[in-house]
User: What shape does this take?
Amino acid sequence: MAEQKKKESFETTRRSMLKAGALGLGSLLVPGVVGTRKAAAAAPQETTIDRIKRTGAFNLGAREADPPYGYLDKQKNVGFSTEIAEKVHERLEKELKTSIKINYIAVTGRTRIPLLLNNTIDMEAGATVITKERDKVVDFSIPFFLTATFILVPADSPIKKAADLSGRRIGGHRGGLEEMLYTKKLQKEGVLKTPVKFIGFENHSEGLTALQGGSIDAYTSDGPLLYGLQRSTPDPSKWRVFDPGVNAFAQAFPIRENSSGFANLINSTIVEICESGRWQELYQKYFVPVGLPKELDDTLKFLLRINSWPE
Assistant: This one.
């Protein structure tokens, strides 16, 4: 019964996202990188594809502890986003007609955009949400997934809706959009009557440890990531994931600006994956095992439709 309610909750969120146009975007100020756009415009820069061709290497920012999007399995980089990025690598080799080395470079929510802007990575494959502030400093591919911010709490926790977080200690990914959501937006809207204490963690596993130890009352992140965390515990029934209904958003691959050729290549790869049925295979492989419904809901079907382009 709990499993059915969890699936229905996720389906309800996705349906509401469809009605909202599938792009309910949050807002996050990325420290240390705002303002670089003007400096970069002062002189022509090498495009990402030119850089990859010159160096013979594709530097991929990979998540190592964020299942189902990206994580390490026996020291091998795997995950939904990781596999799509590997298809981008294959397309690069095909279009450049040469062998390109792929380098997996570990990134976190805090480091992904700075490492992109300083040319350490060429693209980040994770669960990055398109936001207005991020769009000021990087470009994005077309969306490859749609989700929302969920909450993870002990099964017997009295926290059952967003308002119940008032005055609570809530953990989240450092560098994610959740801090602004819970400390500013929801307080401004009156959803939270008393300010929360937000505690940022470098990795989701650290946040789960804090929740298990009782130093925070709830942990918040994207729905699929929280289901993955719940499944990683010795007894998943001791934990509860729920949708507070506070937002909905699109996830995409961030890249450096002034690289339209690279963006076109990534977008063509996503479209091909959606049209070929590979996207659905990856969904079954990575999202269903962590608790998402086996059958695609209307929102994800909509995503596949808009990512299937006419000739």
About this structure: The domain at 149-247 is CATH 3.40.190.10 (D-Maltodextrin-Binding Protein; domain 2). Residues 2-19 form the longest helix (18 residues).
